[in-house]
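Problem: given the chain below (202 residues), write out its structure.
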Amino acid sequence: MDIILLERVAKLGQMGEVVSVKDGYARNYLLPQRKALRVNAANLARFEAEKAQMEARNLETKKEADALAVTLDGQTFVVIRSASDAGSLYGSVTTRDAADAATVAGFTVDKRQLVLTGAIKELGLHDVIVNLHPEVTATITLNVARSAEEAQLQAAGKSIAELAAEEEAAAEFEIQELFDDIGGAASDDFGDDAGSKASNEE
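Solution.
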């Protein structure tokens, strides 16, 4: 199907370009989202008549998106989730979760604007792309952790594997100290017995 783009569409073209796309893509996405019009005489005439307005509107929304991108880009939002000791989530973090986390922090972001670079099924730091405008994107980071304390440690650069290793080392150290204390107490007792035996023989 031939269509006229009403805004820039990634990997397709700029506003005003006439491009050919698959019928399903046009019918299910581009036309309902008002990103394009079917090519025919009436629509071409309509586009030419409204082109100046569309360009002005596009420029205005781009300015707003640029301003938001400045404050949003590079932000980190914490998402608390249950997970196994190995760091695997019970479920996954979705674009809705990311949008909710951004909204709680005071940013107006719609889940449809968010693009996950991959499925989020592990604890850790994950980058998410925010499409603020056809020509403006920002990148945010989701800090997925089991607690606020764990999120702080992850933000400081420690991975779940490192945290688990540290916890294990600390536990082993405590056990070793406990054994050392028990061993020390036993040798003290044994020493006392030997000393008292020697004094009795005299």
